[in-house]
What we know:
There is one protein chain. This protein is of the alpha+beta class and 266 residues long. It is 16% helix and 41% strand. The protein has 5 helices and 19 strands. The strands form 4 sheets. The chain has a 6-stranded antiparallel beta sheet with strand order 5-6-3-10-13-8. Strands 11-12-9-16-19-14 form a 6-stranded antiparallel beta sheet, covered by helices on one side. The chain has a 4-stranded antiparallel beta sheet with strand order 1-2-7-4, with no helix packed on it. It starts with 8 loop residues before the first strand and ends with a helix.
Amino acid sequence: xxxxxxxxxxxxxxxxxxxxxxxxxxxxxxxxxxxxxxxxxxxxxxxxxxxxxxxxxxxxxxxxxxxxxxxxxxxxxxxxxxxxxxxxxxxxxxxxxxxxxxxxxxxxxxxxxxxxxxxxxxxxxxxxxxxxxxxxxxxxxxxxxxxxxxxxxxxxxxxxxxxxxxxxxxxxxxxxxxxxxxxxxxxxxxxxxxxxxxxxxxxxxxxxxxxxxxxxxxxxxxxxxxxxxxxxxxxxxxxxxxxxxxxxxxxxxxxxxxxxxxxxxx
Length: 266
């Protein structure tokens, strides 16, 4: 079955700090989030675009609507395309903004539609539409960890999403339910029902340290879970900072607080 999107060849490089190498045939194009670019060969033309990035000719109002949808998901107004204008194959590299895994996915394998959290999309083949998916349930929007809106990836091309830490995939049977920390959800197929569930219990609520709600995922469908959400990593770094009241303990220094005085942290 032929594609309407450009067909990309890729190679994932690295282990815990991965990047993806995309090899483009002449006139092939990959589109990426602002800030994902790492390096590229000579002969690749970089162009900033305004809109959803699906490669179709659009009116200004449609482009404005596409850009507005990206703002709603917390992303930049603009995306960047990389087109091979040479007569031979050329490569371009992209990398995530935090430690984790890059997951290559072919939308044809998932009903030509995936829902993902708003900061997980990295890059995709030209022809893939990056839109928004509203959460239909009020509770999910208010407490689900990703707000009312998640990103929707549609088309028949390849997409690359970023997950923090280690990635776990689960194939849910019809009616099977999985409870997940709200920040650990990376992506799900569009047929998975996504809702929230109160943790319950006074001790769990006050002292459990896991928040008030789980994300509940009900099959059938496929889900991707990350072990280290970027928000959790950022919170741990901030809480360990001496300027935020953190401690130097555990760093292996025999100076302890004296070290903080010497380096100006106290």
